[in-house]
Amino acid sequence: MDAEQAMRRALELARQGRGRVEPNPAVGCVIVKDGRLIGEGWHREFGGPHAEIEALRDCRRRGNDPKGAVVYVTLEPCCFTGKTGPCTKALMEAGVAGVVAAMEDPFPKVSGRGFEELRQAGIFTEAGLCRQEAESLNAPYLKHIRTGRPWVILKWAQSLDGKLARRNPSEMERWISNEACRRHVHQLRRMVQGILTGIQTVLEDNPHLTVRLDEPVPRPPVRMVLDSRLRIPLDCRLLNVQEAPTWVFTTRASLQGEPQKVLRLQQAGVEVLEAEQKEQRCDLADVLEQAGKRGLQQILVEAGPTLLTAFLKQNLADEIFIYIAPVFLGQAGIADMSAALASLGPLELRQPSIQIFEENVLVSARLSSR
Questions:
Q1: Any residues with CB less than 8 A from the CB of 166 and at least 6 apart, and which?
Q2: pLDDT score of 172 more than 70
Q3: pLDDT-derived band of residue 370, with 50, 70 and 90 as boundaries?
Q4: Would you say 303 and 312 are in contact if contact means Cβ atoms under 8 Å apart?
Q5: Which residues of 57-74 are buried (b: 16+ CB within 10 A; e: fewer)?
Q6: Whether the predicted pLDDT of 369 surpasses 60
Q7: How many helices (H) and strands (E) does the chain have?
């Protein structure tokens, strides 16, 4: 196994952690000795052992000695004690000869210090092999570390003619997309730390905005509502904070003008936060700044055309997921996303991907400016 093969295997392993390790980065590790893979591992879940520790354990389970081996890892090893001990110490104690990382870790507590500790111990280090793939894999983590803002994913389901909802839906017609797409959305929700919507969606749909999968979700994402006039109903589903935390962003005028409602929301366990005002609405950039400071690395926006296109107009979105059902709704459809998008300039996308969910299609891509 050569160096590039080893790193590509490490990247493949790292991808298995996506949706379970956030807001930590997804990391994979491969240990090679005399050209042979002798151990491998990946960061499996938030708070669990890091990839290097998993790989060393795997190495020993196989009856192999990592002394003198070269470690290929997708991110610079950590050098501080957090939820787990420092990986640099474990690698030094194992007696490895070298560490090749795809990229440096910009996290301030690491940021070159991991490599320096290893070099001080006589272990050679190298960075940059498959860097582009590693940076793409952990783009949300890198954005949050470098800018303080979360990675913003816009998601919607639509008919072929761009309608997001039916005018008078029956119980069976509540959703545009099929069940397979909806399961995928819940997997997407599990990956993020916040789900953001607008007050109009709350008033019209009364959503849960929770992760509903067969397995438990130890850290449910925060439900975030933009509500500049504080119109949120006191009996809506989002006020059930036993399901997940809820933050309501509103303006100073509403905070001052609706003290009793603010108190009722707070008594229900909801956090009511002041957002800067922009054109009579909560300023999206300010909301993202606040979310980033509170540790949210990725946010999923599930809303109507007005809010979705506002993120695009202000160049605040990083990624889009569009679920398309094979139906034309015509006059029976409302919430015309195609018309809303027509008001924008051209959007250049990169890394486009198409997935088939039975008769539905998912088109996803990153925005070219990211």
A1: 173, 176, 329, 332, 333, 334
A2: no
A3: very low
A4: no
A5: ebbeeeebebeebbbbbb
A6: no
A7: 13, 18
| Residues 317, 144: Cα–Cα separation, whole Å | 13
- What residues does 363 pair with on adjacent strands? 322, 354
Catalytic residue among 22, 40, 52, 302: 52
How long is the chain?
A: 370
Task: Cite the beta strand spans of the chain per DSSP E.
Answer: 28-33, 36-42, 70-73, 98-101, 124-127, 151-158, 163-166, 194-198, 222-226, 246-250, 271-274, 277-278, 281-282, 298-302, 319-324, 333-336, 349-357, 360-367
As a whole number of angstroms, the distance between CA 26 and CA 106 comes to: 14
Bond from prior residue into 23 cis (ω within 30 degrees of 0): yes
Q: What would the two tokens of residue 114 be? A: 């991991």
How does strand 36-42 pair with strand 28-33? Answer: antiparallel
64 contacts 39 by C-beta, under 8 angstroms: yes
Q: Is 225 helix (H, G, I), strand (E, B) or coil?
A: strand
Reading the block at residue 344, the tokens are 């924008």
Count CB-CB contacts under 10 A for residue 179: 11
Q: Which is nearest to 153 in space by CA: 322, 283, 352?
A: 322
Confidence of residue 27 (pLDDT cuts 50, 70, 90): very high
Active site annotation includes 52:
yes
pTM: 0.91
DSSP string, 126-156: EE-TTHHHHHHHTHHHHHHHHHSPPEEEEEE
Q: What is the pLDDT of residues 62-78, one digit of tens each?
A: 999 999 999 999 999 99
Contact 220, 191 (CB under 8 A): no
Q: b/e for 207-233, b at 16 or more Cβ within 10 A?
A: eebbbeeeeeeeebbbbbbbbbebebe
The span from the CA of 98 to the CA of 80, in Å, is 19
Strand partners, 37: 32
Band (pLDDT 50/70/90 cuts) for residue 82 is confident
